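From: lab user (bench 3)
To: helpdesk
Subject: output format question, protein + 3-acetylpyridine adenine dinucleotide

Hello, I'm new to running complex predictions and I'm not sure whether the block I got back is the full result or only part of it. Here's what I submitted:
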Amino acid sequence: MVKVCDPKGITYYKFVLKNFFSRLNIKNKYGDFFLLINKNLDTLIVGAGFAGMYSLYKQVSDGFKSEIYEQGDGVGGTWYWNRYPGARCDIESMDYSYSFSEELQQEWNWKQKYGTQPELLDYANYVCKKFDLKKNINFNTKITKAEFNNRTDKWLVKTNKNELIECKYLILATGNLSTPNTPNIKGINNFEGNVYHTGSWPKKMPNFEGRTVGIIGTGSSGVQSIPIIAETAKKLLIFQRTPNFSLPARHSELPVKKREDYKKDYKKYRNLAKNSSFGIAKYQPPTQSAFDVTDEERNKIYQKAWDEGGQAMLFSFTDLLTNQKANDTAAEFVRNKIRETVKDKALAEQLCPFDHPIGTKRLCLDSHYFETYNKENVSLINISQHPIDEINVNGLKVNEKEYLFDDIVFATGFDAMTGAVNAIEISNDKGITLKSTWNNGPKTYLGIMVSDFPNLFMITGPQSPGVKSQMILSIEQHVDFIHSLIKHKKSNNYNTITAKAKNQDEWVNHNNEVAHNTLYPLAHSWYNGDNIAGKTRNFMPYVGGVANYKNICDEIVKDNYKGFEFS
Ligand code: N01
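Helpdesk reply: Thanks, we reran it on our side. This is the complete output you should expect:
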């Protein structure tokens, strides 16, 4: 219910609001026309992607008064914003889907082996409708600030519409790759043509026919969109700072028989996924080292995985992500494929990655990415030795050379994992902001809570397997865990839950230890925060594997929620 402060609530809110605004240094005279939304919410969830939707479903099903606030005008999160040409999931759709409802997984029919963005968005809308979630979602509303009040043990949350809402629990379902990064290049605002970012693509697909397009970035978004843009653009200029490893996805329609067979055994596949490292049923832990076989046998194994498509290659041997020499065998196999595909030998060499071990950046999956460089209308501009000097009215300049185009596409990624959380000014009862506590890199307990920030939860936050796993599986595991914490608190009449600092420190150390036993930290990547100027370098995802992580969480629950403090 929306209302202007009623006289009954006035004293209480007067205090809270004054406190809230004085700290935020906003000159605002409370008492005049302040819009207070008095909803008696148990839970406020930020974001209506897959994490937010499942969290809402779970909360409402158990009788909690819960609502989502979402800045877009629809559900779907990643799949709502990333509408760029060629956008699709790099995990097969039979895996990349909710498992919490048997009815849902039986009645939804995936059409493509890898879900396309439109298909995934349809799925999100279908789920929203099926579980009647819309009535509890506030669209077009951005959460800007949140402050914990230790008198009421509640969060006071502010929206971009100048509304204030109180809730007991604040759940951040804000996504790991949801804050687009546009690099700070000189003159960036001077360009007079159309400007696009893959991470916030317009709903109406632009028509590139007959146009010259410049694209910056060759990560997953660039690798997916480049072949499609090249199909219609008169000219495509690709500005590449670092080449990337990419494997053929081998997309296809999903044969009906395969889909129905999978459905018959869904329980088995979901269990296999839960007990794997990356949360994908078919990628079970390998059993042999790359050096347990001869060179010829190894290449046969890589070739089989290459022909199969997807990320199978990475699961060929136990030591690909821990031993540089083992990794080199896979990396060279892929470089040779690039050399075989790209006709111009010098160009092929420029497309070969040498700067990082294969798999230590998110491995791209493509459809004819390298083949695209054989097209006459496509040019690679290698900016590894010389960055872009400036963007100007008609294009950009590199090393004094001018490149002209009609449209520019930034495929320049995201402020990953912490960007969306830090975009909300979250402060605890001592007035300390979460952003400032994360100045030297994020610290969390299990990627779920942060000590000193009571009743605040993150779904797939830093130091959890999220981005290194089948995301929806990790989302479900986190939502279930958070829900069990909240129910435990409620049934024992506690007011607050928080993570203990000591356990948080131990968890962060464990994360670092696990990561530093692998090759992951060697790459310059968003996993380390390297792509954002000024961001402290810190390996953020948990790479100990989905199954290990789940076992740790289960043990914590058995041990009376070890590391969490209820008061
Ligand atoms: O972003 P990225 P992305 N000048 O950070 C370049 C997921 N995803 O949107 O490598 C010039 O990977 C930058 O260069 P460099 C997936 O997890 C999934 O492509 O830093 N270039 C790089 O080439 C993925 O990992 C799918 O030297 C600049 C590119 O921009 C994550 O999202 C599809 C630059 C950014 O690559 C992010 O992928 C898409 C500058 N100033 C995304 N700044 C699926 O398939 C940046 N770059 C599910």
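A quick orientation on your result: The pocket of 3-acetylpyridine adenine dinucleotide is lined by residues 89-90, 177, 183, 185, 198, 216-222, 224, 239, 241-242, 362, 383, 388, 411-414, 526, 531 (CB under 6 Å). Let us know if anything else is unclear.
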